Amino acid sequence: MAKVSIIGAGSWGIALASLLRKNGHEITVWSALEKEITMLREYHEHKMLPGVKLPEDVVFTLDEREAAEGKDLLVMSVASSYTRETARRFSPFVAQGQKILNVAKGIEAHTQMTLSEIIEQEIPGADVAVMSGPSHAEEVGRGVPTTIVVGAKTKSTAEFIRGLFMNEVFRVYISPDILGMELGGSLKNVVALAAGIADGLGYGDNTKAALITRGITEIARLGTAMGGKFETFCGLTGIGDLIVTCASMHSRNRRAGILIGQGKTCQEAMAEVQMVVEGVHSAEAAMELAAKYKVQLPIIEQVNEVLFHDKSAAQAVKELMLRDKKLEVSDLPWPEG
Q: What is the pTM of this model?
């Protein structure tokens, strides 16, 4: 039995707490929100994840020291915009070499840093790993069969974390490509906004398939330019995560996109979804990275125009369709003659 703390008590954190407790581990859940901890202590259930009851022996705390000290693993499950602040709060209580698993997805605006890079910067000496893949909290909490990937700098750390999480309904692969995994998990949220916008405009399956296919092309184009591995973008943390996020109503990014396609502003859509829409935070960072690495991201560029520059969703789709004529795969040779 391992001692594991979940840092962040949103729906994903609670789903993982439930999974890990069922696997026999000792679980502590931390939140910065007193109301959230009070609710969890009283009901052992989160209102955002109804039906997932945590056992009475799960500890809920507001205290960083209690959550960090003596733990075999810290699972960082806070929204990307709070990752730096949370890592900074925990830094004084984290031991040298402490294993930290980041399960959130996003890129920090303006620094263009991935979340694992932020954690490493704020908690020097930590052994930071990531977990990503097609895995809605609503389904993991109910024990729906799910497959996911753990990325780490060493195989031993990846195998240790896999051993804590894996069971008959939660299959875990491992990978050394942390960067590729994080980029896939972050950028797919921006493409899912585009897919939702298309749904909100009333478009059909043809449009969705095109956005998913061309979207993964954009993600892989930027990701490989930054040093991620092409194979990663073809796997669970690339195309797998993109498919589920573009297709499911569990996806807050898709739901926000639908509302924007129906005419709501970005802020109105986020308020109605009532959860952090990570794609909005990653969209600007993606374009900053595109400029830095000199790659074209036409879908992500149009999402930015709709989110931040008042372009109509219908006009954005029209401009995507009327772009310069292209080859689908530019390096395939034509036969002679």
A: 0.93
